[in-house]
Amino acid sequence: MGNRQAVLSPEKLEQYQDCTYFSKTEIVRLYQRFRELGPDIVPSFMPNDCVESVLVPAQLVGMMSELKDNPFVEQIISVFSDNGTGYMNFENFLDMFNVMNDQASVDLKTIYAFKIFDNDKDKSLNSTDLKWALQKLTKNELNRNEIELVVEKVIEESEMDDDWEISFMEFEHVVARSPDFKNTFRLRI
Ligand SMILES: [Ca+2]
Ligand SMILES: [Ca+2]
Question: Residue 9: phi, psi to the nearest 5?
Answer without folding.
Answer: -65, 155
